[in-house]
Records
---
Amino acid sequence: MSINQSGWRPTSPEANAGNVPASVTGNKALMLEEALIFEIGDNHTTGVDFASPSPLRGEGRGEGQPSNAAPGTAPHPTLSPEGRGLSRLAGLARNNPIGLPGLSEPETVRHYTRLSRQNYGIDLGFFPLGSCTMKHNPRLNEKMARLPGFSDVHPLQPVDTVQGALEVIHQLAHWLVTLTGMTSVAMSPKAGAHGELCGILAIRAALEAKGEGARKIILVPESAHGTNPATAAFAGYSVEDIPATAEGRVDTAALKARLGPDVAGVMITNPNTCGLFERDMREISDAVHAAGGFVYCDGANFNAIVGRVRPGDLGIDAMHINLHKTFSTPHGGGGPGSGPVVFSEALTPYAPLPFVEKQGDQFVLVEEENADEHHAGSFGRMVAFHGQMGMFTRALTYILSHGADGLRQVSEDAVLNANYILRSLDDTLDAPFGPSGPCMHEALFSDSGLAAGFSTIDIAKGLIDEGFHPMTMYFPLVVHGAMLVEPTETESKAALDQFIAALRSVAERAKAGDPSLKTAPHFAPRARLDETLAARKPVLVWKEPSPLAQAAE
Amino acid sequence: MRYLPLTQPDREAMLAVIGAATIDDLFVDVPEAARLDGPVRDLPMHASEMAVERHMSALAKKNLTAGEAPFFLGCGAYKHHVPASVDHLIQRGEFLTAYTPYQPEIAQGTLQMLFEFQTQVARLLGTDVANASMYDGSTACWEAIVMARRITKRGKAILSSGLHPHYVSVSKTMAKFTGDVLDTAAPELAADMDLDQLIAKIDDDTSCVVVQYPDILGRIADLRPLADACHAKKALLIAVVTEPVALGAITSPGEMDADIVVGEGQSLGVGLQFGGPYVGLFGCKDKYVRQMPGRLCGETVDADGRRGFVLTLSTREQHIRREKATSNICTNSGLCALAFSIHMTLLGEAGLRQLAEINHAGAVSAAERLSQIPGVELVNDSFFNEFTLKLPTEARPVVRTLADRGILAGVSLGRLYPGEDALANGLVVAVTETTTAEDVETLASALQEILA
């Protein structure tokens, strides 16, 4: 099978200005189109050299195919079980093609470099996604994570050959516990939402251990993250919403009124998704505890309070920390994440394994077989190995760089930047919770006051033309046409001023009903994409065009 | 504090715009009792780049790396050579420092890469479709079991004894809370996988059978009879692949009619990293796509009619239907998926097959050499690049002793199955293209000496 049958090449759109003809290639100077690997690769090219078929057999056996063999001359390098007496493949040796395109090394480098240029990242500019938090990713973190001592060790090596790796986990755990004022931390959850699940499972294990397994309700305020109710439901709970007050906080009276013997706990996001600190957190925690439940806090927004507030002082029982948000690990176009969960004393015995502990001068991996009484009630294992080690290394590097003093400055600058944006734009954009007082890490606006037919999406797409990644759109759900802007601490005043000017200008165009905004972005690699078509007729993998379709062209 | 661009005059000017006298005025909503009056005690202050590098390097040096030792560990994480261009390309800031592609017009790089990744993974696993990656293989395995429950509306999953014990642990943990019933057992040190035993267990309550391929002891079997038996009872066959390089040499589970195929993609592009981050692979038949967890990237067109890509079918996801979501996942392993995809592109069909052949040939040769040691027995009839030896004594202390000699000898089954005496003598040995003949000889002679 040859992969490159279609001969697809990017086609140039109609030239959109004056009499300038479209380019033949579809490219526009430095903005280059790039076909799919299936359209430019084939099944005999490889960008990797292999010295010989088997490094254990020495040179000169000659079974390997030259890596740059001419098309058509090279049969697939197949295993020949009968011929060589080598195969132990149970008669399952593959003889049919897989259909994987190969590119030479230069073609590969060019393909991915070209793709990268169609992406926006924090290295290019301000990335104000509220509740998602994109901050500068220091390259020292990357360098440290790539030290062979961390990147080239296997999770099942004997523990005395990985003492440094375990010490990294132990040191990071110490920082997280100390900064949050909690008792212990489970490091293994793979992402924030996985951490939520970890916290809820610990709550459920604790309740069952106390004979309180009949509690089946988790209360989730409207101002919480969207993953919270999904997590509670996934862990077998029924979810009940608690309304938000007019000023964007949990309705404490409504929450207290709902507490009872059927409630397992509450999941609160603090600071919340309206960008506000839940002032009544301690009061809520006390009420939940008095009613026999537990308090889960979504710590995704911990970056706003790190070094200034310890969640443990607010009566929280479990909280995950998104390392990429607070501690600058890169998000890589959607992950990986890492979501360690800190626990109060009450939940510590139920936390998942493994744990790293220091016993004498040795670091020990506490797993099922050597769990002591502190972890006797553990609800088990959440992932195959020990969590996102590569992220731990990065986070610890960032934490050590900042220190206790720097982290306090981090939250102060993050909050300062958010309030600066809020107060610089609340004359132009509606800020529904502006009167509620200072915001924390993020500033919230609504689409109120835009011209008829214009909404948040038009402002977002207009910002793209101004060279900015848009803010979070339509979230949180409690605000109509929400725009959630989170600057973080790594933005300069000059960057914020430029963003404020751009957002002001786009907002004014939306209020005036400028029709060109409805078709924005105009200068991006793509115009607005048809998401409805994608969902209605899902095309999730590349398929070779049928011969009929080709003939029709 | 080199990562903080604000100057003191900036801060003062900004406070003036806000109308606050001091930074403390912005924290008024935090109750007095919960406010810290200075840096958290018991933690050091900020440090220079040089000092941090010195500290981290000292920690790194305390580990024995795979590259420093004759190295034979596998069991779900494998040492393979990763071409230099893979790590270079994933460090481009536009990939590394991008967020989830919520604004497709300026995220086509990530989205096209995910579409290519999905296609590569689907073809490798032999499934119709694949998603944009999961956290890792073990969580993907669990999500597949939950997905089978959603599809079949049944709650009993049969787990093969050859499934990685950590994957079993993760599934057991989650099953406690979702109410699924798992039927599982520890493996036996036998030459072949016993699929008939699994077939005999399938009944009308069975949602799925989960089988690892190659399994934890390295064994391979034709899954078609198992798939037929599952389908006869309207149950699903889930296959778990922890070593994707194997699929360059052997028939994929999808081609043998598995309904869902999940895997750990670490082998390609990602590196050992002491267990994470890794990249979960997840593919299934077309008819189940709307029950698949995780992110999906789909092809569409833009307003000018040009091809483009978007995240799609997200109505299954947490951010739309909240408690009705198919799973609570709100991320994937984007950067690891990118590394996987680049490595796969560099290899191509020809390279992957060659790589697989080298791995297999190396393993065959090592198995022959090691099983010649007096008292050492090769358990497997079949294997790809990983096989199990039965030693005349407990394997765990042997591994320990070999580590003292600078040899990382493999994974003792005692480590994976504590308390299972029948498995204590088992040692799982993995051989890849990074293993040299000298490595095997070093292990063989040291092992022979210790066992003598």
---
Amino acid sequence: MHGTRILQEADRLMTVCNSCRYCEGLCAVFPAMEMRRAFSDGDLNYLANLCHACGACYTDCQFSPPHEFNVNVPKTLAVARAESYAAYAWPRAFAGAFARNGLFISLIAALSVAAFIFGFAAINDPGVLYGIHTGPGAFYKLMPHNAMALLFGAALLYAILALMMGVRAFWRAIGEPIGMKTDPKSLLQAMRDAGELRYLDGGGVGCFNEDDHPTDRRKLYHHFTFYGFALCFAATCVGTLYHYLLAREAPYAWWDLPVVLGTLGGIGLVVGPIGLLSEKWKRDPVLVDEQQMGMDTAFILMLFLTSISGLALLLWRESAAMGPLLALHLGVVFALFITMPYGKFVHGIYRFVALVRYARERQMMAE
Amino acid sequence: MVDLTRRFDVLVIGGGNAALCAAISARRAGASVLVLEGAPKFYRGGNTRHTRNMRCAHDAATEILTGPYTEEEFWQDLLLVTGGQTDEELARFMIHESKDILNWIVEQGVRWQPSLGGTLSLGRTNSFFLGGGRAMLNALYRTAEELGVDILYDAEVIDLKIEDGMFLSAQLKQPVGGRTEVRASTLVAAAGGFEANIEWLKQYWGEAADNFLIRGTPYNRGAILKMLLAKGVQEIGDPTQCHAVAIDARAPKFDGGIITRHDSVVFGIVVNKHAERFYDEGEDIWPKRYAIWGRLVAAQPDQIAYIIFDSTVVTSFMPTLFPPIAGATIAELAGKLELDAAALEQTITGFNAAVQPGTFDHTILDDCRTEGITPAKTHWARRIETPPYLAYPVRPGITFTYLGTRVNRQSRMLMKDGKSSANMFAAGEIMAGNVLGKGYAAGIGMTIGSVFGRVAGREAAKNARN
């Protein structure tokens, strides 16, 4: 017996699939399943997070609906995945954030943007907010750099702590006894698998989305999004280093490294989310956990707002719009940071952890 | 929308592996092709949906096959399982053609993978479809559509107009659109056997057929086969012969597929409803014997049997869809199976007493055997003594039937008078009896389908041009 109805269903499906095994060449889920004959809650949450929702096993399954065995692995594991995020959330009190997540994220985002605008106006005289500021340190007319670094550093650290606590709970539940650091090989393998989205390709043909014609579009848009996000993060890090190590203050020239990284990342983070959203809207409803739509959309929109507001700031930083745009950008980024552990962002973390576990299992099998 | 007023070069009836290989090869040869699949779209493809591999000859190891499997060895295997009941010329032709099929099928978008985990040591002889039979089928349909083959689903053919061995037209019945006469220069019949037609099975098996489970599609009712035989096509194959295995008695009547099978026979004993053993469970390795157990169970009273084993072997075979039925004592297990407890205890006690010491190894013909009981268990015999005692109820699971239309090396149908048909071809289960007089070896059904489908399509296209 399992804790929830969806895990009960996931167990039923894994029992069906384990007696068939036709899909074992499609992704990591089925080989991982084959290493077990019975499934604990943790096992099922592990398999759910290992699933990249490529849809191939649904299209290839002779028992998918309308067959009476009613095998729909992508949808069942999608629901289980979403429920696992709440199950491992830290602190437990915030697990509820995953329900009606779209509303939760938008509220936090709106509030933090408002707080920045109000804060800028309250701390400085209103003229500063709509003033034209150029040259080094222009942004810090609105908010001192140290305050900015402290605020965002704290938000980021909190997010990292909350995520780590969640990962710890997940790690224990999936029965992984030893720490990751003991096994750099698995870690590297998982980084490669995640970095190239190895399992989002239906075993080689591509991802099934709106019909039974596989494409690589989702993979491509996800790459744009992920690497765009990474570049933006790198831009922030380089900017921080410039400030503290080289004493060079933002805004930087358009050809300078933080701006180049941020611009490239920003473009990726515009193209990627638009693509992912359009794929999501086209997706065959039979594969989709509709409860998750809000959470997915909220996260994608937050990423999109981050990049759009950042690019707008770059374009109009020498005009009167700079103040409001900076408030908007900082508000969105702040909201993104503090909601990271309570939204779709965690999918990447748990999936990565599942990939590490899979790499380790494979290695142990080989030994 | 498919234009049904036109005359097609090639009409393919059926929608499985053989039908699609025929449609694709005819289309690649320049013919206009219409495929009529009687099932709705989800159930398209007959039994191909449930397949997973194909047996092809090859001279050297490939990326997915561990070693050579020569034409001669393939032929010897076929000879063994059929007991010589095969058309040698046709079978050798098929085996030769199977070599090229390995590559041809990949060119049609199908992808292979190394032998599946938990399968019957087929890594050298059989190539497995990545994602299974339905994935293979999806690839063939995608290719056929891209090539411009017309395909209709829910397209039931209710009559064929045939004169002197020459196909003229087919009566098509659709849920929407009613009846239409479809004209074509040539016909490829690839519509499967009649295993889903219980009434027809009863003609040969009597009431026992009511207790058969049909492993595959409910749509293979043999309508096309019946029409062809009624209109002068020569029949081949023993109507009582079919590929039948022992599957879980709790499986659905139709379409339970691969997952209802049991691989545990060699690890225990099999008893009938009187709690008596009836055949040597350890006669040979399972891949060579799995296909005889359907018929063995069919011959038992009420067509039911029980695989009985103990808790020491539960992880020795593939995990099963239905859990084993368990009892803390043999009597309790007998109660749950509605068997006579005393009889079952007597059978197991007698069996245990007959087990000789030996070194168990399920991968070879080991020396664990019984002495002094009939039937003997000649290998892998171990005492059943560690509770809980476990059982799977099994019934005959029919995969496909062997009665079919006689064909020549062009896949062209032969008429009762021995002449070859002017424009009718057959491929797949509907003509499998040419190659399989009886018996079965894993993956041969798909070989028959792909090889003769490809040949039939090519020849039909050539025929249509002349």
---
Amino acid sequence: MSREKILAAVKFNQPTAMPLPDMEVLNTLTDVRTDLASKYKTIATAGGSFVYEVSGFDEIKTIINNEFKAGVKVISALNELSDYIYAETVKHEDGHNFADVELTVLRTKLGVAENGALWLTEKDMGSRVLPFIAQHLAVVIGKDDFVPTMAQAYQVIADADYGYGSFISGPSKTADIEQSLVIGAHGPRSLSVFILS
Amino acid sequence: MSTAPTKDHPHLAADFNRDEPRVNWHDETLWWVRAKRDIAAHKLPEWELLRETASQIKFNVLSNLSTYLEQFEANAIKNGIIVHWAADATEHNQIVHSLLEQKGITKMVKSKSMLTEECHLNEYLKEQGIDVIDSDLGERIVQLANEPPSHIVLPCIHKKKEEIGDIFHEHLGSAKGESDPKILTETARQHLREVFLTRRAALTGVNFAVAETGEFVICTNEGNADMGAHLAEIHIASMGIEKLIPERKHLGVFLRLLTRSATGQPITTYSSHFSKPQNGTEIHIVIVDNGRSIQLGREEFRNSLKCIRCGACMNTCPVYRKSGGHSYHTAVAGPIGSILAPNLDMKKYADLPFASTLCGSCSNVCPVKIDIHDQLYKWRQVIVKEGYSPKAKTMAMKAMALTLASPTLYRMGGKTGRLVFKYAPFAVNNKLNPWYNQREMPKAPDESFGEWYAKRKGAKNS
């Protein structure tokens, strides 16, 4: 049995136990009172996201209606955006059915100012493949839902129970051809973020 | 495999060096990535603290690895993940194949995994009649070109866009002469979308696995790992035993370091945490040793298992930048690969620890503070002691030892050398002398230090 063989070899060869370092320092290093939403906006924009500061859902609808042609398939996980297919009602469908989705709109309660990452779990997505298979992705977040760094982000989700979750920080991209940045590799060609005040 | 085990690093590097403008371009491109790393690192005042913390966490992991492996396994099983163990590459490949065979699957989509490169999984599966398509754009390009990746983060960094255009024209039907990265990427997007939508099995690597929760994390910019995994019936994740970290909160440290060190990005576009399979699908994880437990027992080289595969040591290495990834004839090129490879096969990779200037730049940029250049130096000593060093080098070293041990021989040697440089420069300035390649030979001084000192002393005393 390879399992026993590997574990025995590891146990035999591993050095004397070393302690874990203090993590508290990193959690407290950054100032949480600065304007995290605007710091987020700067970083996320630099990473290729479109960030809109909005005062309500009507404003979000207007922007979506301006950016996307009428009649395209849009799936939304938000109750407030009821003009679209509600993610909850299609979440048990086979992921392949979403191949023609033009836009997915999701909601999160956790964003990270230092790197533009938004935390989304399976529950927020409806179906796991939705934020990847759609041609475009939009995420709604409250202006007070940002933490300064990943250290604080993991404090928030330390004990969270999820089947799947992802930090998403921008549109799908690649720079594999001569290091030229190209937006729109396999996932969404754009990420729009609506910061709700 | 298109790696050439019969050729060693100096000879393979010489092949790469034939095209000087390309070497300069390769060098500059990687240095540009290295510069981006510096900018990103300098933006965080706590950068050094992060590196130290990461290094200490990894030390804790290595010193408790058997416990963490068992803990991870138990929690992963609790989450509904099926766990397999593979002692070596062959067993890993057989496990993957048997999983596909059981489901009657003959086509698989794969996202980046250096471990499967190390195990030569693609070649093995091809022989079993399984079609594997790599979905990371850079990996797809080298796969179509029938080459291994030349860099762990930037697999086709050695290729010009015109060459990629030719490959796409031949295999993916793009227009002849098209070399615009935007258009080529769109071609790949359409081609791979079809692949994602039709494959029943997806294989991914693992960036980090968390003992406390039984989940694992995959980082990509393209989203290819997620597209593959979420659309497949079966997701197989291959992971080396060293990928474990103790708790979920430790991910915060590593995710902050990984891409800043790799490309200068603050984080990858996607950092995906897989904890449980989605309804109706399976997640399998193959935990692979393949020599890692041996390296764990080598006290001087143990630290190399801390590596999080960011590639920073390659981007900064003056030897890697000017010799290209393929000259290392191993899955992980560059400084860290030159430490890992001799552990797998000391004879085959005896040349690699010598492919370094020992300048220390690799150790300085390493996000988990691996003493890379020290380990390269230590490997050289082990390799010489074990008798695996190149023959010419061994002979030269023996001659040098003899000369240095005898003052008479030393003086004679110096004198002869200076005379040769002065009166017969063609004896050293020729292709038989490896030091003359890509290098100007120095002018020899008229007298040795010993002669000068004796003269000076004589003048003072008189």
---
Amino acid sequence: MMRVAGAVAMSAVLALGAGACGGDGGGSGDGDSITIGFMGDLTGENSGLVIPPKQGAELAIEQYNATNPEVKINFKTYDSQGKPEQATTLALGAVKQDKIVGLIGPAFSGESQSVGPILEEAKIPSVSPSATSITLAEKGWEWWHRVVADDAVQSAGVATFLSSSLGAKKVFTVHDNQDYGKGLADAIGSAVKAKGATVQTDAVDDNATDYSSTVNKIVDFKPDAVYFGGYYAVAGRLFKQLAEAGYEGKMMSGDGSLASELITGTGEENAQGALLSCGCLIDTDGKTNANAKKFADDYKAKFKSEVAIYSTEGYDAATAFIKAVQAGNTTAEEINKFLETVSFDGVGKPIKFDQNGELAAQDIFIYEVQGKAIKLLGNANEAKVS
Amino acid sequence: MNMTKKLPSKSNGGGGLSLDPLRDWWAGAAGWQRWGVYVLLIIGALLLPSNAIGSFMAPSGADWAAMLSDQIAIYVLLAIGLNVVVGMAGLLDLGYVAFYAVGGYTIAIFAVKYDWSFWETLVLAIVFAAASGVILGAPTLRLRGDYLAIVTLGFGEIVKRTANNSDYVNGPRGVQGIPHPPTLSEFEIFGVQPFSYGILDSRPYYYMLVFFIVLAIIFVKRLERSRVGRAWTSIREDEDAAELMGVPTFRFKLAAFAIGAAIGGSGGVVFAAKQTSILPTNFEFMVSALVLAAVVLGGSGSIPGAMLGAFVVAWLPERFRFLDDYRMLLFGAALVAMMIFRPEGLWPSRQRKAELAEGGGGMGHMGAEVGEQQTGAAAEVTK
């Protein structure tokens, strides 16, 4: 009896504590502060791709609030774990209870499909730092924007890079049979084919660990380059097995694999020279512009880690909202109107949206694994393999 | 007929939180008292999405009404369906999510490709889900216990993989643009339009689910009290004895599977219509596991127990969302605590509880509590 009572008392204490913590959510619209949300997978299995943009956005808003502006911005995060069904619940809460005036995210394309209609009907502008699915811009959403090029642009950029810079005549594409990976690999396959290369393709199971049947096919085909569409965990395993099977061509993957875990997964020696493509800019040395260097330093000072995938985009997405607020727009409607005409040089690329919410400047960058780091080679149109 | 009346009212299992006095009253309550309680419960369920309750239940940013409709009510409906299979007939089904997926994909295909309306697809989905229950059940229900669990687990995976690999349903991209149910009327009460199915207000979906849940409860309860229910009980307790006594066990097991599947399918339809898009990853094994956890946690075989269990399973992780990475750990700890303090479930079926106390009852190898009696019986056999 006592034990039961103890358990009940403990859960009651927990529940009360939760109530106390939950109280500080902070509604916006009281004149001198507004709330901007960030939604994405913050604790799930692909959170490695979403925490950097969250930190980027956080940094931008903190820097803005430090200037003592008239209207401060509250930053509130929504952890969807990348699951569409959780994202919709959170989005409704964000709209109704927290009264957000803008949303940075959702980070992934799948959840964007579900959350988009809600934001559209609630008339809340959103700027995604990382959702790259082609179909998102085709829905005619008026409140949706993104600061990253879509998968079509990425595949065109990769195709240019593979055929011009690498001179690849035979390309093998592999995907993980998931929404993002299959879309990217298929698009790259047809883009490379259009440039005159022969292409073979295969799918791997993202839960499996042994890819020998795919590896054998690749070794038989002897391609100049293998492109993998999918996330870093699978890419690491595949590249490791490819290298061990004696494959000597180039290994390449997309933004889903652009994480240092790829190097640990593949093994440092095997991973050397592996190429990655991304619509995001990770530029710690300020190779592309001077703002990038300052951002990388600020980011490192605050989070004690290097800028990573999409942190630049998170910062730029937040900056777009900040510019709107600085221009005196505090309602969702005014902010959306302002986003139609916003134009500034972000820390990544020039930020300007077309009428579908796509970024006007569509750059794809190529990265290469060098030592323990992933180094920027440059824009896909001019990048040269070292 | 009321079976609970005949059972001894003294219980010897579980902790101190006994529901027995309440149950004794309930067993003796007059018809009008029972109906009064039913009506009050339904009114309570309809008032549940109010903001006053939501501010405590969902403080960390999520919309309480959406949480109720998208997660809690769906899980409650699924748990009622699975309770028929696992709780009443004693068949361990680890692939229940397959039927939920069949429902979801039926509306996705027929509403998007053939422009069927929500209500037409709902009927069709229930038929399809029941049929898939029969298709799975016909070859597999001759298996028992662990073997059945493995086969059903496989079936759940097959459905998900088929959806993932089939271009007809867009493979891993899933189906988008599933229409909402048509708005029945603009009728408004207390500022809610309960029959207007839009995207921003989740309450109409919740009311619809409450309606389905009430229907499912009436249906299942009627069955439980009928010859069918008694046949399920006999199968659950001792299948061989039931067969020898002339119960066509295979047919009743198949019926349990089909009914459970039909209820799961209806949940899938509402889910897909509410979300407007479905992906194969919506139908992970995790859903099967959580619904099964809900049934066992609530008290297998008991409808109110399964509902309570589903509520806890769907709500706890959301309520403690502010704990971030630790919330699943705490959720697991809560489940373990449950197993220690109330092994027969939060709100056990009285009949099953008595059978468990008696020993030897229920679900073959599933319940840990049946161990002693079985070894006793085994010892007797080897003598």
